[in-house]
Amino acid sequence: MRCPKCGYNKSSVIDSRQAEEGTTIRRRRECEQCHARFTTFERLEEVPLLVIKKDGTREQFSRDKILNGIIQSAQKRPVSSEDIESVISRIEREIRSEYENEVSSVVIGNLVMDELAELDEITYVRFASVYKSFKDVDEIEELLQQITNRVRSKKKNGVTDESH
Questions:
Q1: SS3 for 32?
Q2: Cβ pair 25, 16 in contact under 8 A
Q3: Which residues contact 62 (CB under 8 A, 6 or more apart)?
Q4: Residue ranges of the chain with pLDDT lower than 50?
Q5: Which terminus of the chain has a smaller tally of CB atoms within 10 A, N or C?
Q6: From the CB of residue 106, how many other CB atoms can be counted at a distance below 10 Å?
Q7: What is the pLDDT of residues 65-74, one digit of tens each?
Q8: pTM score, two decimals?
Q9: DSSP 81-140
């Protein structure tokens, strides 16, 4: 593994552990030349999964596209990078278990929204505002009412963020 600091091609593994709910191996490495430490992730190479976009075009599934969308939506929110990685791993696992070669971008977007609704309401609203391309204020108001009802229902049933 090439060192990100000096570019040397040999490193030693210091520590290995499972990550992302067992779907990935996280390795701490040390460069044999400059002794810089860095982290790598190893995951199973999956069969390419194609995403069918709204306009009918197809492109290869990308965790990074989901990651970037969630990161933008979660700016200045109490959402950790571990939370985001867990969300993405659950989404990818569900997609790969339910769909063999192709999946609609609508399915992916809805899975992301379902996960974000449970994770953080503000992050969910931010993501939904871009993903759903609201046409008017009434659509936004309807979404906010759904969130408000869900939050009230959780509070009424004694479910809080601390109990998750």
A1: coil
A2: yes
A3: 51
A4: 161-164
A5: C
A6: 13
A7: 999 999 999 9
A8: 0.64
A9: HHHHHHHHHHHHHHHHHH-SSEEEHHHHHHHHHHHHHHH-HHHHHHHHHHHTT--SHHHH
Q: Which amino acid is residue 102, in one-letter code?
A: E
9-21 pLDDT, tens per residue?
A: 999 999 999 887 7
Place of tokens 């993501």: 127
Phi, psi at 99, each rounded to 5°: -125, 135
Q: What are phi and psi of 129, to 5 degrees?
A: -65, -30
First CA to last CA across the chain, in angstroms? Answer: 38
Contact status, residue 130 vs residue 146, Cβ threshold 8 Å: no
What is the biggest distance separating any 2 CA atoms in the chain, rounded to whole angstroms? Answer: 61
d(CA 69, CA 2): 29
d(CA 156, CA 164): 15
Query: Would you state the pLDDT for residue 160?
Result: 53
Helix 81-98 / helix 105-119 crossing angle, nearest 10 deg: 140
Of 15, 22, 108, 11, nearest to 58 by C-alpha is 108
